[in-house]
Every structure is written in C-alpha cells, then in structure tokens.
Amino acid sequence: MKTNVNIENYRKLVQTYIDLHVYNAALFWADKVVALTGNPRDVYWLAQCMYLLKQYHRAAYLLRSKNLDKANVLCTYLTAQCFYKANELSEALKLLNSTDPFMVLPKDEMTSPCPSETDIKLFDDTPKSQAYSSFLLLKGKILEAMDNRGLAADCYKQALRTDVYCYEAFESLIKYQMLTAAEEEELLTSLPIDSQCSSEEAEILLTLYESKLKKYHTPVLPKPNESKILYGNSNSLPNNKLLSSLNLTSHSLYTPIIPASISTPVVTRNNDKNIMKSNEAKKKSMPMDISSSNTLLMKLKNSLDLQVAEAERLYYNCDYQACNLLTEAVLKMDPYHDACLPIHISCQVELKQSNKLFTLGHNLVDLYPNLAIPWFAVGCYYYIIGKSDLARRYLSKATALDRLFGPAWLAYGHSFAIENEHDQAMAAYFKASQLMRGCHLPLLYIGLECGLTNNVNLAEKFFQQAQHIAPDDPFIMHEKGVIAFQNSQ
C-alpha cells in the first residue's frame, strides 16, 4: 500500500520541540528528516539540535562530513560557534578566516547594509545583513578571547555598521571599556542608521544607544528624549541635593562627579499606587497629535535598561540615595538584572549598607557561583567592614571568573590601597588600565598612589593621561591642583 509522508510535518515537529526546549526529541526527529531528505538545511537543523545539547564536536563533525562548513555561511557560522564553545579558538578563527565570503568587500567602514547577492550563500529566508553581522560578532568574540582586543573591537564595529540593530556588538564595545567617550560618540555618529531605519526607528535607536554611553566624563542632564522616556513630559525637573563633601583619599569603586549645580528627576517608587494613577491620568490627557516615535518613547519608560541607565547617571552625580532607590526598584522587578547589580553593589558600598550587601552577596553566590558579580558583592562586603584579606580573596575569585570585570579589579586595588600597600595597589590598577582602555579610573588611582608615595612627577603624568580620557572629570582637576600646590605653582 502506497503512502505519502509529509516531511514538513516532521520539520515542524523539530521546530516545536526546539521552542519547548525538548532538545533530545528535536534531535531524534531531525535525524529522521535528514535520513529522508539529505537536504543541507535539514542537516543544519540536525547540527543545531546537537549544539543546543552542547554536543559541540559532534555538530562540527556532522557539518564537516557533509562539506557544509565551507559551502554555506550559516553552516560555517555554526561550525565556528561549536569550536568557540568547545574553547578551540584557533580552529574557530582558522575556519572563519579561510571561508569568510565577505573579504571581497572594502576594508574601510561599510556603508551598505549587507553584501551583494553573489558574495554570500544563505538559506532563502535568512536576513543577509544579520547573518553577516553575526559572523563578524563571533569573529570578534574569538579574537577577544585570544586577547587580541584591538582586532576584536574592529570586528564589533563592522558588525554594528552592517546591522545597526546588533546590540550585542554595541554592548561588547561599551561594556568592557574598549572605547573612550569620544570614540563612543564617533562610533554612534558613523553608524548608517538612516539607511537601515525609518526616521521613527532611528530616533528610538539613537535614544536607546545614547543612554548606554559613558556618563562620568562630563556632568550633564538627561537628554530630552531620555527625560521623556523615564519621566514623561514634565517641564520642570526638581533639584537633588548632592553630597557636599567627599573624602578624596578614600577609593570609590567608581569615580563619581560633583557638579556645582545639576537638576535630576525625582526618583519615585514604582509600587506607589497614587503615582500609578497619576501616570494613567497623564496618559489620558496627552494630546492626540503626538508623533508615533514620541508615543513609543513614552511607552519605553518602563524599560528596566533605561531605568538602570538613569541610576548610573545618578551614581556618577554622587546622588547615592536616589540611585539606591532606583536600583532597589529595578531589582524588585528583576532581582538578578546583571547590568543593575554592579551599580547597586557600588552604591551600597558608598552608603555603607553592609547588612544588605551581606545578604545580597550570599544570595547571589548560592544562585550563580560561576559568575563574577556574586563574588564581587561578597568582596565588597568584606571591604567595607575592614577585612581586606577576605575582600581580596573574593575579589580575586571574581577577576578569575571574568578577567575583564573592571569594578572587581578596581576594588581589588582599593583593598591594598586602604592598607597603604601602594605597590600592590598600583599593580592591580595597572592591570585594570590594560583591560579598561577607555576608562580613566585606573590611571587616576595610579596617580593617587604615586602622590601618596611622594612621586609627584609620575603622579602628574598619570593624571594627564586620565584627563586625556575624561577632560572634565573634577576629581582629576582636584588632584592636579594638589600636585600644583605641592610644587608651589
């Protein structure tokens, strides 16, 4: 009896089980689809199932045995991704370099959103610009893991210019301080946003990306769009009282900014029913002719990422109480927000909230013992209670888990500096300066240590280097003034 088998049903079954995270079932049926069809796309999905099951070598071998690792961009990408996850970095980079179909493009800044049709082999429904961007992103990750951060940054920039929506490439550039503030601004202005986005999308994208840029290099108010996002169309922003004095010889986890006068929005608790009602009333009273982009920007005010960006601004403006209120509100909605936690922990250090920091640190360690942030929190707890040896033990563990985690390196240096161990402190700060090329803080702290050891000329050189990165930072100006005073200038 003749029967017809509908292969599409099995393919849908594979996708359904992948969506449900039942990967073994997906692998089982993907294998049967490949046996029935031998189609390269089905082979790709079989390898994808193996990858999801963390069978990296098996997936790479499958794609290579079918000669797909150099014949199709997505298969090349998946094979390289498998080698990357298996920590075979040289093999992954060798594959990408030997089969990169995009080297025919000019090496200068890309202006076209994607390669031409003849330069790329993809499955029909795969967006070419996003595939190319992901290809470059992976190459950047591999180079960064091999400590070639300069070439990695170039790959991230190319990935972002190819697909301006590739946030992971943007985050890779800014998260680990690869760029200075000026370089970040230059990157943002160089992106071909207008050619890849509508005017409304461009406004939203720029607003979101600008909220992620450095906030310490100069004290500024939130930009109009950012203010609208977080606090609506309020015409007046009340003043916050900043800390009137700081002990500059004590080391903070970040260098905050003390502007002479600054206005910041009032931070309110999200669970306040009266304010929720007030916001609803404002929404109803908004004019009907508001532009669509502004409407979307208003809706984005509930984005936790934007609230974290505002908390970071408050922190660098030394408004620790307001910053702490906002980070607590964010963590109440998302207790493990990885971008909020370092700011929240640093704020608790400034406010000397040792009990809260103890509880937070040990809760995080129980949940995420293989991440750096929990050990950073524990190390900070011991730092503020004066147990520097224990602080160094846990901060060292944080840097071992994530060697690029700048706050842990700075805190590690502080744990030596607080005990007047100047050489060890400077060694930690030098390591931080190598990893955080776009951040002035390690250079500032090295200069402070040089000043404390009466090496005034060397201290001045480091302050000048720090000021080159952050020209308007008042702490640098203060320390340069101290040096000038000591030199009777």
Textual characterization of the structure:
64% of the residues lie in helices and 0% in strands. With 489 residues, it is mainly alpha-helical. The protein has a domain at 301-346. InterPro entries: TPR-like_helical_dom_sf (IPR011990), TPR_rpt (IPR019734). One of its GO terms (cellular component) is cytoplasm.
Chain-wise SSE layout:
Layout: H1 7-19, H2 23-37, H3 40-52, H4 56-65, H5 73-85, H6 89-99, H7 128-145, H8 149-162, H9 167-175, H10 181-190, H11 193-196, H12 199-210, H13 224-231, H14 273-285, H15 292-299, H16 304-316, H17 320-333, H18 340-350, H19 354-367, H20 372-384, H21 388-401, H22 406-417, H23 422-435, H24 441-452, H25 456-469, H26 474-486
Helix pairs in contact: 1-2, 2-3, 3-4, 3-5, 4-5, 5-6, 5-7, 6-7, 7-8, 8-9, 12-15, 13-15, 16-17, 17-18, 18-20, 19-20, 20-21, 20-22, 21-22, 22-23, 23-24, 24-25, 25-26
Organism: Acanthoscelides obtectus
Keywords: Cell cycle, Cell division, Mitosis, Repeat, TPR repeat, Ubl conjugation pathway
Protein name: Cell division cycle protein 16 homolog
Binned strand content: under 5%
- The number of helical elements comes to 26
Extract low-pLDDT stretches.
103-120, 223-279, 281-290
Largest sheet: none
| N→C terminal distance | 102 Å
Rounded mean pLDDT score = 81
The quaternary structure here is: single chain
Structural class: mainly alpha
**SSE ordering:** HHHHHHHHHHHHHHHHHHHHHHHHHH
Q: Any idea what the shape is?
A: elongated
Helix content: 55-70%
> Radius of gyration in whole Å, from Cα?
26 Å
